[in-house]
Amino acid sequence: MPDALFATPELAEIYDLLDSPERPDLTPYVAMVDEFNAHSVIDLGCGTGVLACRLAALGKEVIGIDPAAASLAVAQRKAYADHVRWITGSAEQMQGLQADLITMTANVAQVFITDAEWVVTLRACRAALTPGGRLVFETRDPAKEAWKDWNRENSYQVIEAPDVGRIESWVELVGVQMPLVSFRHVFVFQKNGRTLTSDSTLRFRTQPEITDALSRAQLTVEAMRGAPDRPGREFVYIAQP
To answer: In this structure, are residues 227 and 233 in contact, taking their beta carbons and an 8 Å threshold?
Structure first.
C-alpha cells in the first residue's frame, strides 16, 4: 500500500514542489544511462515520473511502474509522458518485460520492509534485465543516522501551489526500532486550514545485508558509488546478474 504522500491526490499534486525542480539526485541516473549504453529503462517506483520523462526526452524506451495511481496521474501530464509506458503496480508487473537498466531512486529500495519482499523484488528485477543489463538503486547508510534530522526544526518549509495557495510542511520522527524508522509528513493548507498527514516506514540495511540479498537474487555488486546529493550518507549500488 503506497504512502498517502503518493496515493492521495491532493498530496501527489504538490509532491514535485517539495523538492528542488532540478532534482540533482536524478542526474547520476541520467548519466548512467549513457555510461552503460542503455536503450531501455524500467523506473521502478517512478512516482510522479520526473526521471522517466527526462529519459524519454532523450529518446530512451522507458517504462514507469508505481503502485500509486495518483502519482501516475501527475506523471502522465508531464512533457514527454506520452513517450513513456506507465504501469500501475509493483515489481510483479515486470513479468515479461525487459530492460537494459532498472532504476530505484530516492527511498524506493528502502520501502521493502521484510527481507522476503526485498528479495522477491530483486529477483523480479534480475529476470527483467537484458543480457549485460544493470540494476541501479540507492540506499541510506544506517551508520549516519539520517533520522536524527527528521524533525520540524530541520524540515519546515512553506510552498506555494498553483490554485491551492500556501502550504506548510514538515517531517516528524515517529519511532526508531532498528532496522525500521517511522516518520510522518505533515501538510497544512493555509487556504482552508486543512491538515493532511502521510506516515512512512523505511528499512535501513547495512552493506553486507544488501550484498547478501543481491546474492540470493543472483545479482552481483559491480560498483558502489556515493550519492552526490547526500555525500557520505547514501550509496548507489550498481548490480548485474
So the answer is: yes
Cα 116 from chain centroid (whole Å): 19
Give the H or E element holding residue 235.
strand 234-240
Quote the domain boundaries for residue 164: 143-202
Distance CA 219, CA 97 (A): 18
* Same-domain pairing of 86 and 110: yes
The pTM assigned to this predicted structure is: 0.96
Residue count of the chain: 241
Crossing angle (nearest 10°) for helices 115-128 and 207-216: 50
* CA–CA distances in Å: residue 186 to residues 5, 140, 153, 158: 10, 22, 13, 12
Together in a domain, 119 and 179: no
Q: Could you give the maximum distance between any two Cα atoms of the chain, in Å? A: 54
CA distance linking residue 43 with residue 35, whole number of Å:
17
Give CA–CA dist 159/47, Å, rounded: 20
The residue-averaged pLDDT of 219-228 equals 92
Are 121 and 60 found together in one domain? yes
Q: What is the C-alpha to C-alpha distance for residues 241 and 227, in angstroms, rounded to an integer? A: 23
Mean pLDDT score, 60-85: 98
Taking alpha carbons only, the member of 80, 94, 45 closest to residue 66 is 45
Instruction: Provide the 3-class DSSP secondary structure of residue 119.
Output: helix
CB 180: neighbour CB atoms within 10 A? Answer: 13
User: Which pLDDT does position 171 carry in this prediction?
Assistant: 98
Mark whether 120 and 227 lie in a shared domain.
yes
| 226, 232 contact by CB (below 8 A) | yes
